[in-house]
Design a protein that fits this description.
Alpha-Beta Plaits, 18 helices, 3 domains, 480 residues, alpha/beta, 51% helix, elongated, 8-stranded mixed barrel
Length: 480
């Protein structure tokens, strides 16, 4: 039996006592009242008292039954703890002086299973999954594992272990159970020790941020930093964004037609005081969640323009801007102001578009992109061919370049992949759209993509390392 079900049984037993004892007391009072009289005769007053006692008893009984149903500890679908009880239990555990880890375990392909096999089968899978997880943890000496359903296929697990031990358990579980109830299952998971934040909601938010950066279908063992303070991390991210503490690195990209490097893809990291230099996977989720997308994108664009103004004017720069910013009318004015101040021509700017899902109001999005395009700015679809919204966008949005997903390079020997790439290149050429491939590491691959008609090539064969701002300006700077 699940620990949650044992707790629910105990709660119902206590509720039964609460229901039974007052009723027994009322019956006892009634019996005492009737038998203490000298003559056992029932009059109108006695009947009224009896009816009153009966009414109170029935009302009280139904009230507690209804209360018992509404205040259950258990998620009815899965048998795990429901969210309300889960959070209360975790808060109690966090107050204790012992190692304790909080884990977010996601059944990542649950939506696919529900869509293709039916919601009922997806629901049954959740129940079986919880039973299996509970038994697995008990076999690993976790006597009372705290398993709660947080949302959809997301479960929070509380374990009296340090975070390394908890992650090892999750790794063992996800590698052991690749199939449940004759269905292939995919997991994501992340864990943090209880002391990494002052409140539970912040901890859970951080877990969601961590999982959001993991690739679909991959169970990734995330080892958090020692003594990580999530509250301090967020404060430092905000401070870094607002003070423009950005470190840019430029990835050289070869123009295959001109046989020269005239395009750089820009990456960015944040410099913080206590948490060091943060890669995008560490700070982008917090930037998005805290509503700092526009501030961050403005700071990024300003930093790029400062460097662009100091190098060869024939060199262009491609970089990612948040869709949130690009759908904001005022951000167009921000772009104009920054570029004008730096003296950078718009045609040197390529904004990369990437999203996991198609945006509903494509028409409104298109209006803003067209306004930027009229200035001379160009747009590229990043990770084209990956499971994202790029196919929808190339049909409806003003796109000037596609940057193919890395799978087209590393899996090119697969005949299907090669055929798809050739077809895409031909389609892009017919639409006047430039093409770019990444992860090209050998002369053989370089020559192959040249022959296919790829416009831009990026990878180890072009340059073995990105350039920071200082080296970019030193190598490609405008001669005074």
């Amino acid at each position: 039996m699940l620990f949650s079900e044992k707790q629910e049984r105990s709660r119902r037993f206590r509720l039964a006592l609460r229901m039974g004892i007052p009723i027994l007391m009322l019956i006892g009072v009634a019996i005492f009242y009737f038998f203490r009289q000298e003559r056992f005769e029932i009059n109108e007053i006695d009947i009224a008292i009896f009816v009153g006692i009966l009414f109170i008893s029935i009302y009280f009984l139904f009230f507690l039954i209804n209360l018992g149903q509404s205040e259950t500890y258990v998620d009815r679908m899965t048998g795990a703890f429901n969210r309300e009880y889960l959070l209360d239990a975790l808060k109690r555990e966090m107050k204790k002086e012992k190692d304790y880890s909080i884990i977010l375990l996601r059944l990542d392909n649950l939506p696919f299973i529900s869509d293709h096999y039916g919601i009922d089968r997806g629901d049954r899978l959740l129940r079986i999954f919880v039973d299996i997880l509970d038994k697995f943890l008990k076999l690993n000496d976790i006597k009372e594992p705290l398993i709660g359903r947080y949302h959809g296929g997301d479960f929070i697990v509380g374990l009296p272990l340090n975070v390394e031990e908890s992650l090892k358990l999750m790794e063992d579980f996800t590698s052991t159970y690749k199939e449940i109830n004759n269905l292939a299952v995919e997991f994501k998971y992340a864990a943090v020790p209880k002391e990494t934040a002052s409140d539970l909601n912040t901890l859970i938010t951080y877990l969601y941020d961590t999982i959001s950066q993991q690739k679909s279908g991959v169970s990734k063992k995330e080892k958090p930093e020692k003594k990580l303070d999530i509250n301090l991390l967020e404060e430092e991210i905000v401070e870094a964004v607002r003070h423009g503490s950005l470190l840019l690195h430029y990835i050289p990209t070869l123009n295959a037609k001109k046989d020269r490097i005239d395009l750089f893809e820009v990456g960015v990291r944040l410099k913080t005081k206590s948490n060091g230099i943060l890669p995008p996977k560490k700070f982008i989720p917090a930037v998005n969640r805290l509503g700092l997308e526009k501030e961050f994108d403005a700071a990024l664009f300003e930093a790029i323009c400062e460097d662009a103004a100091k190098v060869d004017p024939d060199i262009r720069f491609s970089f990612n801007i948040s869709p949130f910013s690009l759908r904001n009318d005022s951000f167009v004015e921000t772009i104009k102001s920054i570029a004008s101040k730096a003296g950078v021509e718009y045609d040197r700017i390529i904004i990369e578009l990437f999203e996991n899902r198609a945006f509903r109001d494509v028409k409104r999005y298109k209006v803003i992109l067209e306004e930027l395009r009229e200035l001379g700015i160009r747009f590229a679809l990043d990770n084209f061919g990956a499971p994202n919204a790029s196919f929808e966008y190339i049909k409806k949005l003003p796109v000037d370049m596609v940057q193919f997903d890395r799978d087209f390079t590393i899996s090119y020997n697969n005949p299907k992949i090669a055929a798809l790439l050739k077809g895409y290149i031909q389609a892009c050429r017919s639409m006047g759209v430039k093409t770019l491939v990444k992860w090209v590491d050998t002369e053989e691959a370089l020559e192959r993509f040249r022959q296919l008609g790829i416009d831009y090539i990026q990878g180890f064969i072009v340059s073995n390392r990105p350039l920071d701002s200082e080296h970019l300006i030193k190598k490609y700077g405008v001669k005074q």
